[in-house]
Structures are given as structure tokens and as C-alpha cells.
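Database export, one record per block. Field names are fixed; values are copied verbatim from the stored entry.
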Amino acid sequence: MSEDTFRSVEIERTKLGQYVVRNVRGGSITVGTGEDGSFTPVELLLAAIGGCTAVDVDYITSRRAEPTRFSVAVTGDKIRDETGGNRMQNLTVEFTVTFPEGADGDKAREALPRSLQQSHDRLCTVSRTVELGTPVSTVEAAASPED
């Protein structure tokens, strides 16, 4: 893979059941088991799906008019499937978006359904990856001498 396609985060344990995730730009978020205010990994998955689509839709519709309301609710059910493994099902991304009255708002309202479809069908890397079922490899890194 080339440098412009590569994505990564690093996760460091801060205490039992709590971790900090860092990106290469210096951003961080706390992840944990949900016993405090930190996000759980499943909540981050939902946020990633909704956030990815939100960015796509916002960029497309905001060219026409600035929304007066823009919110996204992402829901799903965590289940144990027939193989005994945990997974999510019934994932839904629900947009509540309003635009001001007038010609520009009308253009944005008209673009909204198409932008939702474009994000789902080709733009949102996260939801497309989930829907296509991309394999995940989990490997142990070689220990360094100082470990």
C-alpha cells in the first residue's frame, strides 16, 4: 500500500479496561469497557459509521446551504450469533437535517437523499468496509529487547 492509502491508530493501555487511542495528527480518545464516560469499542464502531456518512453528506449538501440542524443517530443490536460469537446487527444511520427556507435550502434538501445514497453506495469507507465484510488479521508483534 502507498503512503496516501495507509491509515493507522495506536492504542495504549492506561489501566485495566481503559486505553487511549492516538492518531498520527495528535488526536486522542479514551476507550474502555463503558464503566465510565469513555467510549466502548462498539460505540466507536457506531460513531465511525455515522461520522463517515455525516462528513460525506455535510460536504455535499453544505455547498448548497448551511444546515440549520444536522444530527445523526446510529443504532444497532449487539447479539451473540449461532456460532457463539458477538457481533452487531440491525445497523441503522438516521439523519435529521434541516435547511433554511429559500432557493439554496431547496437545493440542499433536494441533494440530501442523493448524498445519503452516494455515501452508502461508494463514498463512506467505514460502512462499505463493514458491509463488504473485510477480513481482519490479529497478530502478535515480535517483542523488542526492552519489553
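Remark 1: The CA atoms of residues 129 and 136 lie 11 Å apart.
Remark 2: The beta strands are 9-15, 18-23, 28-32, 69-80, 86-98.
End of record.
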